[in-house]
Amino acid sequence: MIPGRLEKALGHAFADPGLLQTALTHRSHSAPHNERLEFIGDSVLNCAVALELYRRFPALTEGEMSRLRANLVRQDTLHRIAESLALGDCLRLGEGELKSGGHRRPSILADAVEAIIGAVHLDAGFDAAAALVGRLYAAHLAGIVPGQQIKDPKTRLQEFLQGRRLALPQYVLLDTSGEAHAQNFRVACEVPALRLKTEGVGQSRRAAEQMAAERALEKLK
Amino acid sequence: MIPGRLEKALGHAFADPGLLQTALTHRSHSAPHNERLEFIGDSVLNCAVALELYRRFPALTEGEMSRLRANLVRQDTLHRIAESLALGDCLRLGEGELKSGGHRRPSILADAVEAIIGAVHLDAGFDAAAALVGRLYAAHLAGIVPGQQIKDPKTRLQEFLQGRRLALPQYVLLDTSGEAHAQNFRVACEVPALRLKTEGVGQSRRAAEQMAAERALEKLK
């Protein structure tokens, strides 16, 4: 049973509600699950964001648009979008995943957002799916200041602190988990002068540091 | 001056011929050049191929579709499509690139194909661009045998030879070029028992070996 609330939040009424049901079904629950829809959704998302950046920023190079896009489509951004939709409550998970808190896991939530985008494409075509992406990313797109956000978060944080003559942040590896081919890193970013401490996770140490730096920047805004 | 032949081969008459002109203009020639269109086209291509695989192969997993797609959108495949369009004759290159044979360079040709796909999207929307991708890739898509092509070329070549009780191929690094962060590898694949020798290039040794193996398989067909 899909909450009407979710369709309303998405701004799309499904002609085939089974597609949304599938998009919300994790593979641990039952088949059909959302992995194939996620494959579609991931590429629709990449494409819709590329087109949006192309239209909004005529002066940006290909490389600059690539970097902006990578920032918009990464798991952390999708996770926040999932949280803004309260998507965790709508997911269908297997018992094991439910018990281990799967409905709060960033990767599961991010994948479901992509699957929903894929479901809307199959339900109503590319333009409808791209319009959904535009709605989900409205705030993120509006917040882009070319030339600023093109620099990665660690660089921006460093420049912010240097501009105030404060000591540079320290990045501390908190732990790693997972097997060798799919490790997860958890890193803290500490700015003692501002009594600031944030955390980031990622599949590389660098990615985790970037996320921690981004969160530090948000607190400093 | 764009040859009418090209529009005919593409099966798309541009409402705005300037878009096609830009798609054919390398950055060495003049601005506006095709790099921003290539960014759009790359993502439209990825998306259109994803949708095509989703529709054609309902039994494939996300991972299997990903591998098939990677094979379809890589430079070597795009290069062949460019050659089938005789695209080299239509490119606008700077003098230096012209002299050094830029109109035959795989990367320049592959990029121009992507830029054309992007130009069609801007000219007539996603569905028109996806239809172009369907036409350009018709033979490649029709040639997919799930479960066969999902294995990578080196594996398929090995299995082909083992099935005939022949010695395994040898991969020999011929040379590397370029700077450390953007090296190019050239590798030979040799099957002495069949007097077969092919070459492949790529940005990693493994990628070059896969291309050489793929070309060996084509000769064995």
From TrEMBL, chains A, B:
Location of the protein in the cell: Cytoplasm
Q: What is its EC number?
A: 3.1.26.3
> Which cofactor does this sequence's record say it needs?
Mg(2+)
Active site positions:
D42, E114
Q: Which UniProt keywords apply?
A: Cytoplasm, Endonuclease, Hydrolase, Magnesium, Metal-binding, mRNA processing, Nuclease, RNA-binding, rRNA processing, rRNA-binding, tRNA processing
Q: Name one Pfam family in it.
A: Ribonucleas_3_3
Which sites bind Mg(2+)? E38, D111, E114
Q: Which domain of life is it from?
A: Bacteria
Q: Does the keyword Hydrolase apply?
A: yes
GO biological process assignments: mRNA processing; regulation of gene expression; rRNA processing; tRNA processing
Q: Catalytic activity annotated for this protein? A: Endonucleolytic cleavage to 5'-phosphomonoester
| Subunit structure and binding partners | Homodimer.
Similarity annotation: Belongs to the ribonuclease III family.
Protein name per the record: Ribonuclease 3
Organism lineage reads as: Bacteria, Pseudomonadati, Pseudomonadota, Betaproteobacteria, Rhodocyclales
Give the gene name. Answer: rnc
